[in-house]
Amino acid sequence: MIPLAAADFSLSGFFQEVRTALTEMANDFAQFLPKLLLAVILLLIGYAIAKVLSKLVRIVFDKLGVNNLLERSGFTAQLLRAGIKASPGSFTASLVFWLTMLFVIKIAAQSASIQDISDIIIAIISFMPNALTAGLILLFGFIVADVIKNAVFNALDQMGLEYARTLSKVVFGFIFILILTVALSKINIQTELLNATVKILLGALALALALALGLGLKRMAGSIVSGVYSRDIYKVGTQIEFDGEDMTIAGIGPVTTKLKRPDGGFVIIPNEKLISEPVRGRTVE
Does the pLDDT at position 138 exceed 50? Predict the structure, then answer.
């Protein structure tokens, strides 16, 4: 049986500890409250400053006509193709706003002695230069890859290749993957596996093309090249003599040329016949 005096002593000690803990908590809160109010005030002031800076960026872009200039140059269309729907001015203004808010949050967290939040913001700010560099590499890399894709498509399309669009997309894909590896390396992401995969795919593609052209498509390749020269020499409607009969060129395709006969029929011949054999005819005016 516990003596009453011991029970009274333990109970009073417990209440004393509770009172001490509550007193310390109240003191800590009283010391933290001014810091918290200061942090809130800094956040409000910083938010207002970020909004003003963001609005100034928008005004500068509008007054100087940067948005219109970038739109006329085609840069805005490229941004839209890259998935950025905002105008360059709006995008830059939003970027300035959030960068400013990161610094404001860091300062507010430090003033309130909230070290965990401060450390997180510092880590984000330290990461931002690499992230921005990677983002710019991806953005301009996408634009360059898209320009090259369009140039390849136009060149192959003028050659009359039916698979010009597919080839241009393949070229775009490989260029963008190479750019992606460079961008990922800027944010310290390992790209050895991706680089190895690209090398394997490029090697396999080169080997497949070499085998195809060397074994089965050598003659077709000659016809394709002949078609390029034929389109420079002969126009649709040109009259030529073929097999002792006057015919009219109705069209020159990637591999073959269609000749229209006087009776309404037609003849299909390989393109190399227009280049490798003597041809007599009359140029269409």
Answer: yes
